[in-house]
Amino acid sequence: MLRNAHVLGAQAVSRFAARGRLVVAVAAMAGLAACSQWEVAYDEPVPADLSAKLRVVTVAVDVPATLRASEANQFAPDADIVWHGDLPGNRHAQVDAIVTNAARAAVRPMRGSKAARLNIVVNRFHGITPKTQYSAPSAVHNIAFTAQLTDARTGKPLTDPTLIRADLEALVGKAAIAAQSEGNTQKARVTSHIEAVLRGWLGVGPDIRGKFSGVGR
Fold first, then answer.
1. Helix 91-106 and helix 186-202, axial crossing angle in degrees, nearest 10
2. pTM score above 0.90
């Protein structure tokens, strides 16, 4: 009788622990889903008549050292930079390389006679963690930066500094695994997306501004 009571007690503890883990997981997901509205947004694209005159000869990206990076493998790290699409390393430098490559690709169609410089300051680069990628029902890459065109020779502003939100729905679970097997990695998707957003702002590609809902930070 005592033995059966002991077994039943152990089972009860196990069920309680399982419920506890479920509560923690649900609470974490609730925190992840606190903000559910996302967008690709900026005020206005570069005027067509100006864009047609420009040839961007320099892309300058700044990822300020004041931005806090996190390596925490949790659903929603409290940081400005969350990036696991490269091997562990200098996350500021990795973000700089991604945005620089995207921006250089974006300006290629600009073949006007006036030399310009594209200046970008990253405000937020919140990718997804491995835990989110494999355990969350959905997720979002939360990205924002400020862009401005200046005269390459004089430094005179050609546009006002423009805040650009470049949020992107992330792939999770089986969709993420399938995409990675085809080479469509988190890094590839984010780079391509930033390029497309910049082309829209620069007036040399489709305007992809819009809003969407999803679970994310």
1. 50
2. no
